[in-house]
Amino acid sequence: MNWIGLTGWGDHPSLYESGTKSSKLESYCSHFPIVESDSSFYAIQPEKNYRNWVNETPDNFRFIVKAYQGMTGHLRGKTSFKNIGEMFDTFCSSIDPLLQSGKCTMVLFQYPPWFDCTAENIEKLRYTKKKMSGIPVALEFRNPSWFLPETKMKTLSFIEREGWTHTICDEPQTDTGSIPLVLSGWGDSVLIRLHGRNTAGWLNHGPNWRKVRCLYRYDSKELNEWKQRLMILNQKVKNVYMLFNNNSGGDAADNAKQMIDMLDLSYSGLAPKQLGLF
Fold first, then answer.
1. Contact 40, 11 (CB under 8 A)
2. How many domains does the chain have?
3. CA torsion 221→227→230→231, rounded to 10°?
4. Is 209 inside any structural domain?
5. For residues 67 and 138, what is the distance between their CA atoms, to the nearest angstrom?
6. For the segment 148-179, what is each residue's pLDDT rounded down to a tens digit?
């Protein structure tokens, strides 16, 4: 099955009818069956937030939760937790309402550009997998050393052997901070995240980097290429989760809907469309 959605539900104005009393999440899930929760990356959310999200979404709706940045090394150890074990335990406890409801498809661990292919970092991945025992987890790299000619097959073998979900990335190809598109998947699931192909924006580290990093709109030819890739993955994997993250200019929702139309998908169990006042 192909699950098409977006990263986050708050920044897609084309999805929300003016004058409705529904929340943005309630409006979102009348369009898509899955979403990535990215607020969990910036701070470990209180349990009540997840309980609210469970209650606001249909039974068939699913979440991909982005792991807290302290757990992936983005904070370089500068956290308020006594140790890393406490951090993991707090995070896992926080998402319990999603886990109990069956609405948590996986937790995404996206590692920073400086997380390279070393023995030390491989052990960190093993520690992470152990701490997340029983919870489905996906792995996304940003350092190309994991997919060099001499490491690519070893990396894929490690991901499969250790029980991670492989994340396929569509992103600008730069010397640092990005990985190649590795069309591989197995078992129950594979995750695809489309960040756009704006190289200049991807390399922008200025004060307005969020406004340009994923500023890109996929055209019909590029989406059709992805349609062909999905057909290949569907032969290997039970569930393909595709998330559009090209939203610096608000293009993600439109591109996701284009992809749904191209695949002739019709999702059952979505929330009813919210209508405005007029």
1. no
2. 1
3. -120
4. yes
5. 10
6. 999 999 999 999 999 999 999 999 999 889 99
Task: Give the pTM.
Answer: 0.94
Residues 6+ apart with CB under 8 A from 90: 44, 81
pLDDT tens digits, 119-141: 999 999 999 999 999 999 999 99
Six-digit token string for 156: 């894929």
Q: Examine residue 97 and state whether it is found in any structural domain, yes or no.
A: yes
CATH number at residue 157: 3.20.20.410
Please name the residues in contact with 274: beta carbons below 8 A apart, sequence gap of 6 or more: 16, 17, 20, 22, 26, 27, 30
Quote the domain boundaries for residue 43. 2-262
Is residue 273 domain-resident? no
CA pseudo-torsion sign 120, 154, 74, 103: negative
In a domain, 269, yes or no: no
